[in-house]
């Protein structure tokens, strides 16, 4: 073999270093162009479990007299069998019946609402509901916070917020996976405008039904109008609270104001007091709830 010159030996050494360097990268896993990118690219993950299940297996209800079916069947009495949330009446087809079927609804739905309840009563009701470990909890509360002896006696918005937040915390401590459907507070001013056309209804209102809104039903002076507008604004503020607090919980769904915006008429009002929902009104609430609970949302 001929003897290499000094220059040739230098070139050979450089060439060997490059070759060995390239080989070393392959050993360490370098590979060709694009291979590193492919290795660093994350693998497709399995489909995430949806946060909202539109077909829950059990249901608990909390709230006030509306959820108890008050005055829907007879005067001054609860009628939970026609409750929009958990009733078993074929006339209403409650949310529980629509979601679970009549047979399962009888054993897998519970009603902890109470007539006269305000938001301050909701944490205790939620504790009862949570003990059942329900898949879904329905909430309809707030009307009694606005329906006070006077507009000045209404629940402050800040208290309403803190009480609702405490209710959700109470639920989460025992039933962290439970879903929550929150119905908006009904439009009390529309209720006044509908019911005041009935002479009997106005007489019943004088017994003390929602005085802040329904008192002096025929009065249209500035003071009466201001009182009603104040109550109506408070209802809207309550609905804003329900929306905002619910939005912070990934397993909570607000109805978007569907109950508040529903244009109910006298057929949807109890003919005992022209304030609470009739059986037909309860059925409309059940329809709204079912639509909202089963809706596909991003």
TrEMBL record:
Organism (species): Streptomyces phaeoluteigriseus
Classification via InterPro entries: GDSL, PLB1, SGNH_hydro_sf
Protein name, as recorded: Uncharacterized protein
Signal sequence residues: none
PROSITE patterns: PROKAR_LIPOPROTEIN (PS51257)
Region ranges (Disordered): 31-52
A molecular function (GO) term: phospholipase activity
């Amino acid at each position: 073999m001929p003897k290499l010159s000094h220059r040739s030996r230098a070139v050979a050494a450089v060439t060997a270093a490059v070759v060995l360097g390239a080989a070393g990268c392959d050993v360490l896993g370098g590979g060709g162009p694009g291979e590193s990118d492919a290795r660093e690219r994350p693998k497709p993950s399995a489909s995430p479990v949806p946060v909202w299940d539109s077909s829950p297996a059990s249901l608990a209800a909390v709230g006030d007299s509306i959820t108890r079916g008050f005055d829907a069947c007879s005067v001054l009495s609860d009628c939970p069998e026609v409750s929009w949330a958990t009733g078993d009446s074929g006339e209403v087809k409650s949310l529980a019946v629509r979601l679970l079927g009549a047979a399962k609804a009888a054993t897998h739905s519970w009603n902890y609402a109470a007539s006269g309840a305000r938001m301050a009563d909701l944490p205790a009701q939620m504790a009862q509901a949570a003990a059942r470990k329900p898949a879904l909890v329905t909430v309809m509360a707030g009307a009694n916070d606005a329906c006070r002896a006077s507009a000045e006696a209404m629940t402050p918005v800040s208290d309403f917020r803190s009480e609702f937040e405490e209710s959700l915390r109470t639920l989460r401590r025992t039933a962290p996976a439970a879903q929550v459907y929150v119905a908006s507070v009904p439009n009390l001013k529309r209720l006044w405008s509908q019911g005041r056309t009935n002479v009997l209804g106005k007489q019943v209102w004088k017994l003390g039904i929602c005085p802040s809104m329904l008192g002096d039903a025929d009065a249209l002076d500035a003071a009466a109008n201001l009182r009603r507008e104040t109550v109506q604004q408070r209802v809207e503020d309550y609905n804003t609270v329900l929306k905002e607090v619910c939005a912070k919980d990934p397993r909570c769904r607000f109805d978007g104001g569907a109950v508040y915006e529903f244009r109910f008429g006298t057929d949807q009002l109890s003919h005992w007091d022209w304030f609470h929902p009739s059986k037909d009104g309860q059925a409309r609430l059940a329809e709204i709830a079912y639509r909202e609970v089963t809706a596909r949302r991003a």
